[in-house]
Specification:
The chain has 91 residues and is α/β, with parallel strands linked by helices. The protein has a single domain (11-90), classed as Alpha/beta knot, CATH 3.40.1280. It has 3 helices and 3 strands; from the N terminus they run H-E-E-H-E-H. The chain has helices spanning 11-18, 55-63, 78-90, and strands at residues 23-32, 43-46, 67-69. The protein has a 3-stranded parallel sheet, covered by helices on one side. The model has no long low-confidence stretch (mean pLDDT 87).
């Protein structure tokens, strides 16, 4: 499995356009479990700021039918959340 970290100067829409065929999983403390994924599933894992996603961002994710995933019981720093979330997804 290949791990790649990306940033888009075009914001959320730019990243979604780049990976429209991926399963999009949003790290969020109000999330649920993971969707059905296999070793061959291409995943875009979205990690937000320490202050949480804005109302507008959460609405965007819901409209795009992205999965909200609670992978930890704590609010983590961005860098830590990315490492922990990817580690769980890879295992």
């Amino acid at each position: 499995m290949l791990l790649q970290i990306e940033y888009s100067p075009h914001g959320l829409h730019g990243l979604l356009d780049l990976h429209s065929d991926f399963t999009h999983i949003v790290g969020h403390y109000d999330g649920n479990g993971l969707p059905n994924i296999t070793q061959n599933t291409s995943i875009a894992f979205w990690v937000g700021p320490e202050g949480g996603w804005s109302i507008k961002e959460k609405q965007f994710f819901k409209e795009k039918k992205m999965f909200f995933w609670k992978f930890n019981n704590r609010i983590l720093r961005l860098e830590t959340a990315a490492i922990v979330g990817v580690g769980i997804l890879l295992s």
